[in-house]
Amino acid sequence: MSQLAIASGAMRNRPALRRRRAKSGVYTGLLIAALLVAVGALAWVLVYVGVEGFSAISVNFLTHNPPGDPAAAGGGFFNGIIGSLIVVGIAAGIAIPLGIGAAVYLVEYGKGSAPGAIRFVNDVLIGIPTIVTGAFVYAIWVTHFGFSGFAGSLALAIVMLPLVTRTTEEMLRLVPNDLREGSLALGATRSQTVLRICLPTALPGIITGAMLAVARAMGETAPLLLTALGNELFTEFNPGRRMETLSLQIFTNAFTGFKEAQSRAWAGALTLIAIVLILTAAARFFGRRVRTAGP
Amino acid sequence: MSLFEHHLYTSPLKRPSRLLRAGWLTASVGGALLAAACGGSSSTGGGGTTAPSATPSSVCQGTTAPPGYTNGVSTVSGQATSLSGAGGTFIAPMMSIWTSQYASSNGVQVAYQSVGSGAGIAQLQAGTVDFGESDAFMTDSDISKAKGPVVQVPLAQAPVTVAYNLPGVTRGLHLDGDTIGKIFAGQITSWTDPAIKSLNPNVTLPNLPIAVVHRSDGSGTTSIFTDYLTKESPSWVSALGGPDKSKGKTIAWPVGIGGKGNEGVSAAVGQNNGAIGYVELAYAASQNLTYADVKNKAGDFVEPCVKTAASATVGITSYPADLRIDVVDQSTNTDAYPITGLTWGLVYQNQTDKAKAAALVNFFSWVLTKGQDMAATANYTPLGSDLQKLCIAQLHKLTLNGSPVAP
Amino acid sequence: MPPPADAGGGIAVMRPGVSRVSLRRQRRRWGDTVFGSAVALTGGLVLVVIVGMVVFLVLQGLPAMQHYGFFSFITAGRWAPSEADPTLTHPNPYGILQFMYGMLITSLIGMIIAVPLAIGAALVITEIAPRRLQRPLSSLVDLLAAVPSVVYGFWGIFALIPAIRPIVDFLTSTLGTVPVIGVVFGGPFFGVSYFTAGLVLAIMILPIIAAVWREVFRSTPRNEKEAAFALGATRWEMIRIAVMPRARSGIVGASLIGLGRALGETIAVTMVIGNAVLHINPSVFSQGATMSSVIANEFTEATEPFHLSALFVVGFWLLVVALIVNVVARTVVRRGVAL
Predict the structure, then answer these.
(1) Shortest CB distance from C276 goes to which of B251, B256, B274?
(2) 1.10.3720.10, 3.40.50.720, 3.60.10.10, 3.40.190.10: which CATH number matches B82-158+351-404?
(3) Where are the domains of chain B?
């Protein structure tokens, strides 16, 4: 024990150690401050939207359309909610099967340098500004067929496709090779292996990826400005016509000086954030269970 | 106790130091307080609230009787149950009321997207909407880009106010054309400028820089406003480089914030102390913005309202056959508000879809009759009877595959 | 590990006397080929989309490019669609330099703020926070990425601008009066500005950059960290010795990924930048516009001669810049980061 005391006494150069400890504390404090700024910003956004939105939201809001006069109180964003569901739903119907197909190609079928190139291009497509996507769909579709909810779905499908491809690819890679080899050894064709073994095994993860892509699509506004254009006052169920989405409705109402329209926009923002966060959190939670449950 | 269990060696994975724990605690408490404080404050921006409007001037008091037109086109049968239109934000509050009333009384849903007059014309040219709407009528070159001849029907008229946000200053600041032109050209930059003071000797103006707000989108309201400036402000014209560049739906604004739509401009004016912008009356009134009394041709400073906007077109004896008339700053009536404009509905003359043609004629006929009765309460001026008769006559011009839709 | 090569449908087929068994197998193999081709087609779809984007944007922008010349868009200094005249080819009223400037300056401000914050946040999450807090904290930061752009813009107008107004007014009255650099910080401040857009961008790209840094720091071998502690290092010294050297390899990639996201942001920026499209305004506290904000604002109503075509040219250049940044970023940062 005395040996330890001597040793520790020699090691403990008190002033220098205290200085280093203090410096460490200061820097650590700065780093923690950085994290707090980040988390604080999120808290600020969520709390602000929450406070403003809660005072305006009601069952009435979720089930009624905006009043004719933007200065009138009451009414809601029912048409936007329906429109969002339809437009994003169709986009998901296009993007998810195509994305899964592309991922299957990349994992199961790709030969040579093609898969690498396609994977690279896929990642690049994720980073394309969505306004450019909207301009592209305008050029190839709207100029011929007019503004419609379906044009908006096309634009959103292009936004969702690379996301679905990437997450599905990662999930398929996690499927153990033993399963594939066993299936092939039993005489199944490659397509049967994929359809009956690989995809079902990876399904929870694929659903995660799909949900994240849907959450992203629900929040998009820019491409819809140029494709769906919006339909402010009426509920539209036909995707061949112009449709309103929640994101568009928030955008147009946020700009106005009318307090009543603004409060509807806050309620809409709260609704949209709630939908997106629930989808994202559920997807992440789902995904984590997949990974920990895997072999 | 081995050397490795000495407290100098702290597994980074096990015990956070006391310093760290204290840091987390204060941080989370502070964060919660911060979030609560910021979340609770829902301020509307750097401005204070604008002063509530003072009592309206005598000419603006009282209500306008609904005109009660009954000369509508008899209902064309077989109409579609929905129509799609796009156009100016100028008429949007009125159009919202019209379309929702029309839907409940006639069962036809007219979806009007308020995107700016420029977009209204562009969408009509592209054929992506059933009708367009604009506060600047289509020129010959606009029509040449469309898919065929266009019938232009004035729907209402309204004043464009010059709204400002000055704490302590009530409605009714006196401004004339050249001063407004200089402000928007960036030549007058402070509210205490002598030019403004000389027009308002009895008003204490705050010492604030002027924040000019204009439109960022192609706008008929801009067209009306700059038409007035071009006629009244030589400084504006020379700053922009000539009368062909100083008026129109899109302007190369030398200074200022760009707001999207009348909504965006009114919002920006309300949120910035010292801001000035041009906004259609309905927007300014429903947001309690203060606006100026503008000098007209007769030399009087007139408040914008339904009556003074009506006075701007009283006395016009003849209209061109296609109803493309410029009413801005034309009238010499003493109570005429100079920055008053018409707004036109735009429809293709030669329709190809029977149901849509019927629906269009019925809707516009309703707007020109029953719709006019709703205008005054929404702060829009109903059309005068001479003009209204000519507008109904325009509706009879629509043809379907050669034969008139409404004979 | 890639799956084994196609085993060809199973065990060796018995030769002659074929009958039903091999016919079934042939049908299966044919179905297999069809499936394989279909899947390959979907794989190639992303290539088609990207190439299609470039092609169609060029096609739509061609009229303006032919009329005014390809490079005049970058050399002309003003965006004044009202001055477009179909008979004049010079000067080009659709100069886009100020939009590129707007894009650059807002992204720069965003990155100057976001990168240090992201490094700090990532360090805290991986090195300082107690283990059971790591996952909730990183989820929290990731949640910032899930908030839609339009909500950020809305919050920016009503919450952020009033909050920063006193600070910026102070800056314009002090820094703004200093000669030479005062031009960059000059007032008056009207809420919407390059700076406001930069702040909003900072919050939006923070989680993505933090995610990259998290992966970088997580790859630090544990024994290096423990060795530092064993030698008596304080927590900060351990970070400095064992973890930070890794940062050098990650800095370019993380910044580029953040830049890529910042470039693509449209709606939030449009709502808080002020939409002054005529020319570059020198002060960061004045209004401006970016390439994506001008497209969003003017697209559906471009009626002047060559206006719509010029907007497609803007879109084309935006696509080119975004492609370059994203390609470089993806090349530098290894795959697998959850973005």
Answers:
(1) B256
(2) 3.40.190.10
(3) 82-158+351-404
Q: Which of residues 229-258 of B touch C (CB under 8 A)?
A: 245, 248-258
Phi, psi of B132, rounded to the nearest 5 degrees: -110, 175
Name the minimum distance, in Å, from the CA of A288 to any CA of chain B: 22
Within 205-234 of C, beta carbons closer than 8 Å to B belong to 225-226, 229-230, 232
- With bands split at pLDDT 50, 70 and 90, how would you rate the model's confidence at C142? confident
CATH of C97-336, one of 3.40.50.2300, 1.10.3720.10, 3.40.50.300, 2.40.50.140: 1.10.3720.10
The DSSP-derived string for A117-147 is HHHHHHHHHHTS-HHHHHHHHIIIIIHHH-S
pLDDT at A93: 95
Nearest 5°: phi and psi at B346?
Answer: -120, 120
Which chains touch A (3+ CB pairs under 8 A)? B, C
Residues 210-229 of A with CB under 8 A from C: 215, 218-222, 225-226, 229
Q: Does C330 touch chain A (CB under 8 A)?
A: yes
Number of other residues whose CB lies within 10 A of the CB of residue C24: 10
The pLDDT tens digits of the residues spanning B124-169 come to 888 878 999 998 889 888 898 899 999 999 999 999 999 999 998 8
Q: Which two tokens stand for residue C280?
A: 């570059």
Residue A51: CB partners within 8 Å, gap ≥ 6?
B39, B40, B42
A286 touches chain C (CB under 8 A): no
Identify from B141, B257, B266, B276 which residue to disrupt to test chain C contact, counting C C-beta atoms within 10 A and taking the largest count.
B257
Q: Per-residue pLDDT tens for A30-68?
A: 888 988 888 888 889 989 999 988 888 888 888 888 876
H or E element that contains B259: strand B257-259
Name the pTM for this structure.
0.82
Distance between B197 CA and the closest CA of chain A, angstroms: 29
pLDDT confidence of residue B212: 94
